[in-house]
Amino acid sequence: MTKKGMFFWLLSVALVGGAFAAGGIEGNVEKQGVNMTAITMFILFVVATLGITYWAAKRTRTAKDFYTAGGGITGFQNGLAIAGDFMSAASFLGIAGLVYTSGYDGLLYSIGFLVGWPIVMFLLSEPLRNLGKYTFADVTSFRLEQKRIRILAAIGSLSVVTFYLIAQMVGAGKLIQLLFGLPYSTAVIVVGALMITYVAFGGMLATTWIQIVKAVLLLGGASFMAFMVLLHFGFSFENLFSTAVQVHSKGEKIMAPGGLVSDPLNAISLGLALMFGTAGLPHILMRFFTVPNAKEARKSVFFATGFIGYFYILTFIIGFGAIALFVNHPEYFQNAKQIVVDGITKIVAADDPTKNLIGDKKALVGGDNMTAIHLAEAVGGPAFMGFISAVAFATILAVVAGLTLAGASTLSHDLYANVIAKEKDEQKEMKVSRIATFVIGILAIILGIVFEKQNVAFMVGLAFAIAASVNFPILLLSIYWKGLTTKGAFWGGLAGLVVALVLIVISPTVWVDVLKNPEPIIKLKNPALFSMLTTFILTILISKLDNSERAKEDREGFEPQYVRSQTGIGAEGAVQH
Amino acid sequence: MDRSLIEKIKNDPDFQKLVSERNRVMVILTALELFIYFGFILLVAFNKEFLAQKLGEGVITVGIPIGIGVIVLSFLLTGVYVYIANKDYDELSERIKRKYMKEV
After folding, report:
1. How many angstroms away from the CA of B66 is the closest CA of chain A?
2. Which end of chain A is less enclosed by CB atoms within 10 A, N or C?
3. What residues of chain B, 56 to 75, have a C-beta less than 8 Å from chain A?
4. Which residues of B touch A245 (CB under 8 A)?
5. Phi and psi at residue A406, to the nearest 5°
6. CB under 8 Å to A158, separation ≥6 — which residues?
7. Is A356 in a helix, a strand, or coil?
């Protein structure tokens, strides 16, 4: 099939999916509330993003265009795109829902997801830009042996991308099922077909602009919701919080940390995974090659941190707004009624007036993930709810597109071009990257359908743990430690991966929640503390003991790399279109 | 780049200034961020009562400004880094580039 032929094929796949969505919803309009706005907005978004993809496809000619959008994205644009890549539906709907059910504990997650950014900036952003070309493995293999280091980077990247992608696909299917009344598997196929289209034809340029559009929509929508909540409470946080405390089933407990972080070991391990996992996510690290120089790289992290931090503060207000406002909306609850006791309005179970349902995970129509969607209706009516539903969908699409691009780049640039291919052939590499996009996309669809009924909540935590224990340590040591050798990096990184996988299987998150055993073998929920330590210690030990010829070369290569990483002399430049 | 050029750049006072200053800033800011975040996490793990204290007459607790503060401080630290880097690093690395670009 020609490039153009494929483009129209996918376009029709997407449109058929969209039409199916519209058809599927009609019968459910009463159950789901008015969703015509959601469908219209969603179709508008899809048409706009396909337009962007068409525009980008004409500008994506070389490998550099495909992987880095030509390297000419500004710091501000890249900051928005990074925020778009990072603010998933899990952080929007999930954290808003977590704040709604547990209050302060929701903030703990937001904080964990944010604090990795300063680390990315201080330790990695500029050296990455100065040393790399298309993927972070360009940096780790700069002075080490291409073959083994690329294989390690590919294993690390692909496991992160796979776990993250499964979690996103399953979440996407369920969410779209809820929002649009579309069958689960159709939803997963629509998402998969769209993300393949964006990435295979529009490459990084399309992906970047879809992230930017999505980030602007999400930040705008969330800002409006938080503004309306605050307006309702006369811009007084005391008013908002005291109303929330009055109506929530947990009362004053929502104003302080609760059971989420129970013991110090778990707290630190999760903290390490979130903080250093952010610094090892392949789709995020890849974004640093889209800007022209180190200065724009650091600017992009500054803007990204600002946008993401602002967004998390908004989700906190949105969650508390939901607690305080849902008391006037018994229709958002299942089997509930509104009663007034001593002048205080409450939502209680229809059959048990002593059971307060505000903050109950399951009582909301659609579950606690629907918190932000219901709140959109409460503050902006059905039209605004339609808008927010479409934004949530756009959010998922943009994130899976970013992940797919990172996965495809690893397959084509790290594995094909630098390990398998005998000679450099850019056209062939481009072709492989497109095939890889199709393969990853179709695999994501299959895995999304296979895992429908599984508990995939642990997969995001696992993806962060692997990123923190395989990608981050090797990246950090390769940039700053002269003594790092190929052998040390390869075996240390692999050991960290194995430790992370084994520990998560025997942890409460998988052993009990997924495999349904009564007792976990270890109490640690996130393996990062031990897997990260394993990687660092083993990598350093093996490197120190390494006396091979290659080790000598590895150490000698450090000085030229260091000069380039510090000054940018010899770094990749941008191309003009 | 050949070895002799690397040696020359390495011994250039501008390069040494750039590297030592950048490493100092990097270590200080990273340590600060680690201290802020893990300090907060340990506070949550060991002293929930401290965070649950009421700030004033109302329901707002000490934990709210501290939690939001971690987010705001992290952002401000990235701002500090950009400020220092824009002021010092770019000029130094430009100067180094200009000096040696012809020889690369």
Report:
1. 11
2. N
3. 58-61, 63-64, 67-68, 70-72, 74-75
4. 59
5. -65, -45
6. A407, A410, A411
7. strand
The secondary structure of A453-503 as a DSSP string is TS--HHHHHHHHHHIIIIIHHHHHHHHH-TT--HHHHHHHHHHHHHHHHHH
Q: Report residue A536 CA to chain centroid gap.
A: 25
**What single string gives the DSSP state of each residue in A268-287?**
HHHHHHHHHHHTT-HHHHGG
Residue B51 forms contact with A (CB below 8 Å)? yes
ipTM of the complex: 0.94
Structure tokens at A478: 């390769």
Domain limits of chain A? 36-324+365-456
Residue A12's alpha-carbon distances to A17, A265, A437, B41, in angstroms, are 8, 51, 18, 50
What is the tens place of the pLDDT at every residue in A351-364?
888 899 999 988 99
Q: Which residues of A touch B73 (CB under 8 A)?
A: none
- From A252's Cα to the closest Cα of chain B, the distance in A is 8
Contact by Cβ (8 Å): A457, A513 = yes
CB contact under 8 A, B81 and A313: no
CB < 8 Å from A in window 3-22 of B? 6, 9-10, 15, 18-19, 22
A191, A396 in Cβ contact below 8 A? yes
DSSP annotation of A134 reads S
Joined together, the tokens standing for residue A387 give 């808008």
Instruction: Compute CA distances A435 → A62, A383, A392, A440, whole Å.
Output: 16, 40, 28, 9
What is the token pair recorded at A23? 């058809």
Nearest chain A residue to B25 by CA: give it. A122
Q: Select from 3.20.20.140, 1.20.1730.10, 3.55.40.20, 1.25.40.10 the CATH code of A36-324+365-456.
A: 1.20.1730.10
| A295 with B86: Cβ contact below 8 A | yes
Closest Cα to residue A161, out of A277, A281, A285, A288?
A281
Q: String of b and e for B27-41 (b: at least 16 CB within 10 Å)?
A: eebbebbeebbbebb
The span from the CA of B70 to the CA of A257, in Å, is: 15
Q: What is the pLDDT of residue A6?
A: 54
Cα–Cα distance for residue pair B85/B104, rounded to 1 Å: 25
What is B8-46 written as a DSSP string?
HHHH-HHHHHHHHHHHHHHHHHHHHHHHHHHHHHHHHHH
Q: Any chain A CB within 8 A of the CB of B50?
A: no
Q: Is the pTM of this model over 0.80?
A: yes
Res A188 pLDDT > 70: yes
Q: Measured between alpha carbons, how far is A150 from A539 in angstroms, rounded to an integer?
A: 16
Distance from CA of B71 to the nearest CA of A (A): 6
Residue A378 to residue A328: CA distance in whole angstroms: 9
Q: Which residue has the tokens 């496809």?
A: A57
Distance from CA of B21 to the nearest CA of A (A): 11
- A38 Cα to chain B: minimum distance (Å): 32
Domain boundaries, chain B: 3-103
Q: Are B78 and A300 in contact (CB under 8 A)?
A: no
Using a CB-CB cut-off of 8 Å, the residues of chain B touching A564 are 1
- Are B67 and A108 within 8 A, CB to CB? yes
